[in-house]
Each structure stands twice: as C-alpha cells, then as structure tokens.
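Issue: copy button drops trailing tokens. Both records pasted manually instead:
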Amino acid sequence: MSARPAAADGYDHTFKAIHDRDVPWTEGLATELLTLPPGVQVKVLAHDPAMKRVDMKVKFPPGYVEPEHSHKSWHSIVVLAGRMCVAGKDLRPGDYVFGWDEPHGPYEYPDGCEVFVVFMGEGTQHVWDERKHAAHAREWAPETAAGRAAAK
C-alpha cells in the first residue's frame, strides 16, 4: 500500500485519533494564541492554517475572569468540566457558547473550567480593554473549595 499523498495545500488533513493524555497542557502557548491574562492553559489538538482553523482544549483556573473581548474569527465552545458563567447563564458540562467579531463576555470561571474550542478565521487572539477588565466586579459565587480559596 502506498502512503496517501499530501493535500494540495501542503497541510495534513488525514484522519487523527488522539489520546488526551498525549497532549500536554501549556500556559505559554495559551498566552501567545489567546492573548489573555496569565493563568490559562491550552492543548492544541489540530491546527490547519489553510482552513484557518484551530481546535483546542482550554483550562481556566478557579476564580479566573476572561475579559469582554472580540476576535477576528468565530469560535464555538463546549463546556467539558467545571463552570462557565456568561450572559446571565451558569453553564455546565455539555453547554455551548458561540462568539464572533462583536464583543462578548466577560466570562467568569468561579470554580475553574475546561472547554473544547474551535476557532475559525483570521486569528485566535482576544482583543480586550485592560482598564475595563480591571474594573469588572465578579457576579458569580464559587461553589467549590478551590473556587472559594481563589476568591480570597
């Protein structure tokens, strides 16, 4: 059997099956890809520059607040673990969020959260106002010991 030829665009579009444990969490990459305040970790599962698509898992620590922001791309998010509180909703595993080029957020993670995100478009970088973010008053109370410790 011969190997499958490379895609015309030069990128690998072959089938993948990846164990979560085989992809390490990284914080530095999160800072670069997402341009968010420190503390976030990511696992990039697939990146296709030709399609302008990035599939990743993102982990937010207890007490983290993601600033109100916009992107030059859209994103679809599914909550995998923990809580994501946004737009008056307390989202739990299985819940969904969609955002695009208009401002959305802030997102609060009172007890920490892990999500699966697909970005499609010109970039994964968040565009946000540091002064507005610093003035944000948290709206959601933690439910876990880790969340309560982070809130102190």
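Record 2 (pasted manually too):
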Amino acid sequence: MSSLVAALLLVVSLASDALLVGVDRSPEELAIRFELLVEMPEAVANTISSGARIEIDYPLRVYARRRMFPDRRIWKGVARSTVTFDAITGRYLCQLIVNGSTTVSREVDSVEFALQWLTAPPAVEVPLPKGRRAAFLRVRARAVFSSGTTWLVFPSTEGTDWVEVKLEAQRDEE
C-alpha cells in the first residue's frame, strides 16, 4: 500500500498544472470548482492584513462542440475572489463576484481561511442553454493575480496558464 501512495505522490509532484479545475454536470447547469496549487506572489500574500482589497480573477470559458466549425463559446465570465481586512472588527470580508454580481459572501476571522478563500473559492454555477445540456463541452479556466501595463502601452498579466476540462456528451436516457 505504501508503494501506491508513493507513486501517487510522485504523479502529483510531477504535475505541472498550477490550477486544479473540477466540473460537476447537472441537467441544467455546470458547477465549476477551482483551486490554485501554486504559491501566491509575495506582494499579494504580504498585503492581506493591510486593509487593502486583494483579489484573484478566474476567467472561465465554456465551449460546445460543433461539427464543421470551430467550437462555439456558450458562456464566458470572470469569477473574482476578493478578501478585504477590516481593522476595526479584525475580520476578513470574503466575496465571490461572478460577472460583477456577488454570489457568495462570508466573514472570517483567520488569515488562513482568508487565504484559502482566495485560492479555493466556492463553485461557480453556469446555466446551460437547452440545446447544449447533453453536448460535448470544454471548460477552460485560469488564475490571474494582477494585470497592468508595461511602459503604459503593453498589457501584462501575472497568472497561470489555461487549464482545460473536457466533458463527454451525455446520452439520452429516454
């Protein structure tokens, strides 16, 4: 049994993905979960107790397969995980904002829970169009720590590479 555990640890250590993405499919929607597996930049981790708002953006894309043309994007959004420290109460306000709307909000009193919220926020629920609910789908996600410009001209982002999860088409049970 210990050789099996050692082999699994070796496989995990060799994995180059910095973002773990999981997708649960229900009849009408997808629940997309993600977890950041790499260390956050020091600039982000060191400012969590300063009172500044810290955020990590998770751009998400859902594609459905077409036969003769490139896959069609059926949903596009950004899940923003934010943490703000309130020095008066000593608590952290954690929010998950999807496409500008707050979907989940919670207050925690520990730095560890606040960091966990940033790196592994709650699942994002994506409604599926009727015609694409049983289709072959691809879900793409990445984490973006910061974005800005270099020399006021060239856009720059610091984050992970895109991770893709494929969902096989479901057969009709009827």
